[in-house]
Amino acid sequence: MASAQWEVGTVITHMSTELNALADDANAIGSSLIDNSETADLYLFDDVEWHNSTMGYAPVADAVMELYCVAQELDGTGMEDGDSTIDPPQVNLVGVYNMRATTGAQTHILRQIPISPGKYKYVVINKTGQALGATGNTLKVTPYRYQTS
Q: Would you state the CATH architecture of domain 4-144?
C-alpha cells in the first residue's frame, strides 16, 4: 500500500530590498514571477516566511503585515490587480502576520497557502503604523506537494 508524504521544493527569497524602508500603508511586490505552471513543478501549497532583523520601532498593538497573492492573467499577457501602487482585491488576501510590539527581530510563517497552477507573485502591505527598517527584511517562499511512495 502506498503512503502519502510531503515533497518540499526549494526555498526562494521572493522579496528583500523591495521591503526595505517600506512606508506605513504602502505595498511591495516580488520582482520576479514564481512559476508553478505545468512546465514547472505544479506544487499545491506554499509556506511564506516574513522576517525582519530589526523594526527600528515597536509596532502598535494589533499591527500586521498583510500578504496577498496576485496571479498572471490567464492568457499570460499581464498580471491581475495588485502591485506597489495598486492594492490587490481583498479576495486575494492569503493571511496576515501579527507583529509583536518589539524593536527586535521577528520571524512569522503562514503555512499551507493553497496555490494554483500558473505564475504568481506575493504582495505585502505594511500595516504596522510606521516605515519598516532600512535593511534586513525578507519574504521567503517554500513550495510543497504530496508524493506517494
A: Sandwich (2.60)
